[in-house]
Amino acid sequence: MTRAVVWLWCVAAVVASAPPARAQNFPRADSRWVVVTRDGAAVRDPGDDAVGERDVLGGPGYPAAYVARNATFLFFRLRVAGDPMDAAGASLSSAWGAALDTDRDADHFEFLATATELDSAGRVALSENSEPGAGDDARDVVETQIADYSGARAMRVDVAPPTVSGVSSYFVSWAVRADELPLDRPIRLFFGSSSSPNRLDGDLFGGDSSSLSEILSDSLDCSGESCVPCAAACGEECLICEGTTPVCNLDAGACEACDADEDCLDPSAPRCDSDGACREADPSDCDPFTNTFCEPEQLSTTGGACECRAAPGSERSAASFVALALALGALRARRGRRTTLRD
Ligand SMILES: [Ca+2]
Ligand SMILES: [Ca+2]
Questions:
Q1: E strand segments, 181-233
Q2: Would the pTM count as exceeding 0.90?
């Protein structure tokens, strides 16, 4: 059975079940659009490696792609060099798409959201890569359409602000319902243009590679009512290290227990406790036999919250010891002068 045959058009059923997206739902504030990055840098794409509205574009200060979400929709935005409105009515219609890896396996992507045609006859489609082809292929064909939205409502085109260097470009934006996708775990994605709604056969963002593992973005957590880059979290799973596993092992991408105070980087919780958690400093831990001691009267009056100080003679007390020696020297000198005057 060919893929063309397997391609399941469920338009009638899906349209009936999917409430329409409204164009006014698109985020207006730039701050709500999250720049899609790879290796921590905004993904770019050179100009003139595709024709007009299919030429994905991105450079310094003008990222190629963005994502956003709200309580209902997941939004995609792609920058292209040519005016997508020129595609309307053209003999060869164009499409723009975002492919999502939702299972943390870069061998295949799982979903493709595409926007085609801009007038009311057009549509936005969400499809599943239900029969994955060859591994690591960003141009894989998707087989099963799972949702369909009015292009007039779930898609829009904007003239992008001119860049500092004067590069003009356009934004194609589209939206699908977030609850159609498994967004409980972090996702990775890539964008591209196409002549087809069931694969990205045009200009893929990030250069000329069509290797999925090479072009997938950094991880994003879109599980809530916004998309958040995982850069500030631990590993590609976007883990938040806390409790008894407060330390991020960068190599393993996993949270671990602390081994020593040096592992506890939060100034408000600098002490590595025996259970592996980082906790606030315990003043009663002051050890008079190493390099700190407690003022006994403070300990008795504040219930243990005494102030630790460097013990005399310790390395940490060297500076204050020198100051004390100078003060004693000055005192002896004054006494010497008084003795001399009496004499
Ligand atoms: Ca390009
Ligand atoms: Ca995958």
A1: 188-194, 220-221, 228-229
A2: no
Residues, the chain, total?
343
* Residue 69 structure tokens: 């979400």
Task: Output the CA 68–ligand 2 centroid distance in Å.
Answer: 21
Helix (H, G, I), strand (E, B) or coil at 169: coil
CA distances to 66, 118, 134, 230, 240 from 223, in Å:
16, 29, 29, 12, 14
pLDDT tens digit at each of 343 positions of the chain:
344 333 333 333 333 333 433 454 799 888 899 999 999 999 999 999 998 899 999 999 999 999 999 999 999 999 999 988 866 555 457 899 999 999 989 999 999 999 987 654 458 999 999 999 999 999 999 999 999 998 888 999 999 998 878 889 999 999 999 999 999 999 999 999 999 889 999 999 999 999 999 999 999 999 999 999 987 788 878 888 889 999 988 888 889 999 999 999 888 889 999 999 999 887 665 544 443 445 555 443 333 344 555 545 544 444 444 444 444 455 455 544 444 444 4
Q: Taking the domains of the chain in order of start, what are their residue ranges?
A: 3-229, 247-281, 284-343
Q: Which residues surround ligand 2, an ion (CB under 5 A)?
A: 101, 103, 105, 108
Ligand 2 center to residue 110 CA distance, Å? 5
CA of 215 to the centre of ligand 1 (A): 14
What is residue 301's three-state secondary structure? Answer: helix
CA-angle at 271, arms to 270 and 273, nearest 5°: 145
Whose atoms come closest to the Cα of 50: which ligand? 1
